[in-house]
Amino acid sequence: MSTTASTDWGPALEDALFLTVAHRHVPGLPARRAAPPRGPETPAEVQALCDDWVRTAAHDLFIVQAVARAMHTVFAEDPHVQLLLSRQLGDDGDHAVEARRHLWALRGSDPLSEIQRHLAEHWARAGDIPFRGVAGFLAFEFHYELYILARMQIVRRTARIADTAMKDFAESRIRPDEAFHRSQIVGWWLDKLQAMAQEERARFTREILAQDEALQQRLNPFLREELADMARVYGADLAEAHAIYDDWRRTLLAKLLDTDASALGALTSIVH
Ligand SMILES: [Fe+2]
Ligand SMILES: [Fe+2]
User: Which of 46, 66, 151, 161 places its Cα 20 to 30 Å from the Cα of 32?
Assistant: First the structure.
């Protein structure tokens, strides 16, 4: 068993961990991309990028709503966690605002109703898991903030196309904000886990695994669709993305539950 200190968590640890995982499946995946992606060149490519901004806005707005509900329910008596989550809520809200503004400028009309349709699908999939106690909330955070990093990391290294008009916002805001959300939630959780007595730790581990598995099963068709979209929209090489995702999730869960990856038993695969 290797214990990860809560203060160690950050982009350096995540990047190294991701490359270790990815190289088990794609030995030649570069640590850094060789050439920058190009901007969209055809109306179809612009349209595909727009569709992805709609999905991004819905994803961020879903996080805002889920976090807000958890603050009022699971963490109603916990001002420390409320303060911690308020940064995530504000940042992800801002990401959704910028995506909406960008779409509105490109299309000439407010994309909110389309964003709302995707948002309703997020709620239909996740149900009450994000505010089903601390374990459900953590499963939600793990899926929506941490496991998602597998596809982001692959796209970052292999995409041939990018929305160059949003490059500055993506690099100076979205990427550092998301890194902060991950280190904040993981730091809080690892400190909490380390302070638990053996029995409580075992119970929490079981509960988180059960909620995490339930969410994996509910999200699977959507996650596969998202990966296929990333390949189509960005020209990214996602051929091994299913295997990398499964391995990444198991590797992270082992770190987050402070156990060996092999001790986690069988986990639901993204392909099931
Ligand atoms: Fe975000
Ligand atoms: Fe976030």
Answer: 46
